[in-house]
Amino acid sequence: MIILNYLISAAALAVLVYETYLVIRRNRRITVKGKDDFFTFCLVLLFAALIFRPDPMADFLVSLRNTLILMAVFFTLAVRRGICEQGVVKLGFVIPWEKIQTVQVAKYQTSKVVVVFATEKRRYRLFFQQCRLRELIYELQKYVPEVLIEESLKLN
């Protein structure tokens, strides 16, 4: 059990180092900043907090493991998502523009738009502020020939 705690702690520390690298290197390259689904993040955080809850009576190694895991989950908020020259930036990877087949822009809530990027195998969603819609459409049309825009989002 001790070896497993060491392995989990080392993996969580590696995730923290990788996220730090993403914050330092990749956050500067994003031209239009977007966001992932906040509800999914909250569910992951809830389950992580329930499974790896801090316990003052636990030994040091278990407390360290739980703290590192919760830090890794929280630090994902610092990594930006959005659009850059290489492609669509998600949390830990970049979807190249060559793989994206269609892009759909639709209204979401009152002040946001959702952009669905479809590849051959999957669909990826990012949320953007509606006030940056003109810049978003301009950047998307530089890389993808066909951008489908919902009728209610008319650009003046």
Task: Please give the number of β-strands.
Answer: 8
Counting DSSP H or I runs of 4 or more residues, the number of helices is: 4
Helix content: 40-55%
- CATH topology descriptor of the largest domain: Signal recognition particle alu RNA binding heterodimer, srp9/1
Q: How much beta, percentage-wise?
A: 15-25%
Q: Report Rg.
A: 19 Å
| Structural class based on helices, strands and sheet pairing | alpha+beta
Summed up:
This protein is an alpha+beta fold and 156 residues long.
Describe the structure.
- By secondary structure, the chain is of the alpha+beta class.
- It has 2 domains: 2-28 and 38-78; 81-149, 2-Layer Sandwich (Signal recognition particle alu RNA binding heterodimer, srp9/1), CATH 3.30.720.
- The chain is built from 4 helices and 8 strands; from the N terminus they run H-E-H-H-E-E-E-E-E-E-H-E.
- The strands form 2 sheets. A 4-stranded antiparallel β-sheet has the order 1-2-3-4. Strands 7-6-5-8 form a 4-stranded mixed β-sheet, covered by helices on one side.
- A hairpin with a 4-residue loop joins strand 3 (87-89) and strand 4.
- The protein is elongated and about 60 Å long.
- The termini are far apart.
- The mean pLDDT is 89.
